[in-house]
Amino acid sequence: MKLYYSPGACSLSPHIVARELGLDIALEAVNLGTKVTSTDADFRAVNPKGYVPALVLDDGSLLTEGAVIVQYLADQKPEAGLLAPAGTMERYRTQEWLNFVGAEIHKGFSPLFRKDCPEEWKSAVRDTLATRIGVVDAHLATNDYLMGTKFTVADAYLFTVLGWSKWTGVDLGGFKHVGAYLSRLAERPGVQAALAAEKAAK
């Protein structure tokens, strides 16, 4: 398998999951501005959507969308427990968190990266994000991870998107449980390995 990624982008989430699982996965960086990969390939020929992550499977087929890719990866090593078995309520709860992170937090950050976004709008976006993050903070008051006591693919996704706060002026200082959670995740070897590899690729 090969994961197309861009350092610091949402592709960090499946990269973390792959490291956590110890999967043998190739990496190829993408310049999202030029749509050219680190091997000078046209990324749009790989993924017509033009954004990361994109996972090319061993049979040559393509899988896109981060929340889907992390589930696919977790299913390659179900014994690792990063995602509950299909049909269980625990799996649906994990998917519930994946959807919340994707639709309400990930996409909430998107306008803050746009240079043409008016500052008044950005202020409103930050207020909405604070409300959403507040929901997570309240949940983490009594849970070590989104799914309680164990790390799952949903945590890899949330860790990734909340990491964007330092670049977008989103203040996490008032969310003490989120802060402790991010520190806890940052200590995981899989997270550290993914971050180190992406830093080296910049």
Overview of this structure, please?
Helices cover 52% and strands 9% of the residues. It is built from 9 helices and 5 strands; from the N terminus they run βαββαββααααααα. Strands 3-2-1-4-5 form a 5-stranded mixed β-sheet. Helix 1 (12-21) packs parallel to helix 3, helix 1 (12-21) packs across helix 6 and helix 4 (89-109) packs antiparallel against helix 5 (119-140). It folds into 2 domains: 2-80 and 190-201, Glutaredoxin; 89-188, Glutathione S-transferase Yfyf (Class Pi), Chain A, domain 2 (Up-down Bundle), CATH 1.20.1050.10. The protein has helices spanning 12-21, 43-46, 66-76, 89-109, 119-140, 153-162, 165-168, 176-186, 189-201, and strands spanning 2-5, 26-31, 36-37, 54-56, 62-64. The two termini are 22 Å apart. With 202 residues, the protein is an alpha+beta fold. The model has no long low-confidence stretch (mean pLDDT 96).
Question: What secondary-structure arrangement, pairings included, does this model have?
Answer:
Elements: E1 2-5, H1 12-21, E2 26-31, E3 36-37, H2 43-46, E4 54-56, E5 62-64, H3 66-76, H4 89-109, H5 119-140, H6 153-162, H7 165-168, H8 176-186, H9 189-201
Parallel strand pairs: 1-2
Antiparallel strand pairs: 1-4, 2-3, 4-5
Helix pairs in contact: 1-3, 1-6, 1-9, 4-5, 4-6, 5-8
Q: Which descriptors would you attach to this protein?
A:
Glutathione S-transferase Yfyf (Class Pi), Chain A, domain 2; 52% helix; five-stranded mixed β-sheet; 202 residues; alpha+beta; Glutaredoxin; 9% strand
Question: Which secondary-structure class do the elements indicate?
Answer: alpha+beta
Total strands: the figure is 5
CATH topology of the largest domain: Glutathione S-transferase Yfyf (Class Pi), Chain A, domain 2
Outline type: globular
Q: CATH architecture of the largest domain, please?
A: Up-down Bundle
Mean pLDDT: 96
Q: What topology, given as strand order, has the largest sheet?
A: 3-2-1-4-5
* Radius of gyration based on Cα positions: 17 Å
- Helical residue percent? 40-55%
State the name of the first-level CATH class of the largest domain.
Mainly Alpha
Give the percentage of residues in beta strands: 5-15%
